[in-house]
UniProtKB/TrEMBL annotation:
Keywords: Signal. InterPro entries: Beta-lactam-related, Beta-lactam/transpept-like, Diverse_Enzym_Activities. Residues 61-332 form the Beta-lactamase-related domain. It comes from Marivirga tractuosa (strain ATCC 23168 / DSM 4126 / NBRC 15989 / NCIMB 1408 / VKM B-1430 / H-43). It comes from the Bacteria. This is Beta-lactamase. Residues 1-20 form the signal peptide. PROSITE patterns: PROKAR_LIPOPROTEIN.
Length: 354
């Protein structure tokens, strides 16, 4: 009788565990009754109408407990994900930080890094850790635009590690260093570490091309093209702390490191006052944005990969939800940062479990 009871309890625990850890196979599973799971039907329709009327989003999906509860637009189309690329690179770093190939405390001087503009002596002490947290203190122009370098203080006025500034020079160099230290191409690593184990449906290696003005800086931007539903797989991987089915794809402690606060929303807003207008308070980890200072329990501990025009992966750990959306850049349409923040907030306002 006792053995039977133990087996019964064990089966219940295993059942609960498998229910809580659902993953897609080749295709995503759709939840059969989102309303029963807490996703209001009328609220979902209102949200979809908002996406149609007030945004230029071309594809959006909400994943709850590993299953689709809402989708809109084209989820299969590969297009430019802009600065979400930085969060993808952060994921790739984990394997090599864990095995010691990449030492985050190595400085630019130790790495023998040079750009067209010579470094100041102080700048040479910036480390890989400073680069991936946007705290290098090196305020040189990147090979591509779309950052806050215009807000930078005078070169040499701050010590590396002491000042946050969202700068593509930092991020592009982080990609260059990744390849230098691992002897691996970033796109090959995306295939090996992410595309294959996550069974991404739409990955196209031929689309992945680095770009930038190499006369401005030696370090190109590692642009990435993904589909909305493959972006959602990355979000689910992060939500599951680097685990995919039975395999630990990314070290769990590295996932936790990426979303550990390196810069508070207060410091970010002080250094880039435009962030005060975004509608959500955003701190920064290792190339992931952290949602802070929110009274909505559904947003507690949430974090995002964010890109220009309207590219986004947001993870809501407290409610087991992933949101992914994008806007195809070819259409020459742009969602403001404020619109992106509205979508992040409105997406989970649909969810009211009772």
């Amino acid at each position: 009788m006792r053995i039977s009871l133990i087996l019964f309890v064990s089966s219940i625990l295993l059942s609960c565990s498998s229910e809580a850890q659902i993953y897609p196979d080749i295709n995503w599973a759709t939840h059969q009754n989102p309303v029963e799971a807490g996703w209001g039907d009328a609220d979902s329709r209102t949200f979809t109408r908002y996406i149609i009327d007030s945004t230029y989003i071309t594809g959006l999906v909400i994943i709850h407990k590993g299953q689709v509860v809402l989708e809109f637009g084209d989820l299969e189309e590969n297009s430019y994900i802009a600065s979400c690329r930085k969060s993808v690179l952060a994921i790739l770093y984990g394997k090599y930080v864990e095995n010691g190939v990449i030492d985050l405390d190595k400085s630019l001087k130790e790495l023998k890094i040079e750009d067209h503009t010579p470094f100041l002596e102080l700048e040479q002490s910036a480390t890989i850790k400073d680069l991936i947290s946007a705290r290098s203190g090196v305020f040189l122009p990147g090979s591509n635009g779309g950052d806050f370098r215009r807000l930078a203080p005078e070169r040499g006025s701050v010590k590396p590690g002491s000042y946050w500034l969202y700068s593509n020079w930092d991020f592009n160099l982080a990609g260059y260093i990744f390849e230098q230290e691992t002897n691996r191409n970033i796109y090959d690593e995306i295939e090996a570490q992410l595309v294959e184990p996550l069974e991404m449906q739409d990955w196209d290696r031929s689309l992945q091309i680095k770009n930038g003005n190499l006369e401005v800086s030696k370090f190109p931007a590692y642009h990435i093209w993904l589909s909305t539903r493959d972006m959602a797989r990355l979000g689910l991987l992060m939500l599951r702390k680097g685990k995919w089915k039975e395999k630990q794809v990314v070290p769990q402690n590295w996932v936790e490191e990426m979303i550990t606060q390196r810069t508070s929303h207060l410091e970010a807003q002080k250094n880039a006052p435009v962030l005060k207008e975004d509608g959500l308070d955003l701190g920064y980890g290792y190339m992931w944005w952290l949602i802070e200072n929110t009274e909505d329990s559904r947003l507690k501990n949430a974090y995002s990969a964010q890109g220009a025009l309207g590219q986004n992966i947001t993870v809501y750990p407290e409610i087991d939800v992933v949101l992914a959306f994008k806007t195809k850049s070819d259409y020459r349409r742009r969602n403001s940062i404020q619109t992106q923040m509205n979508v992040i907030r409105k997406a989970v306002e649909i969810y009211n479990p009772n």
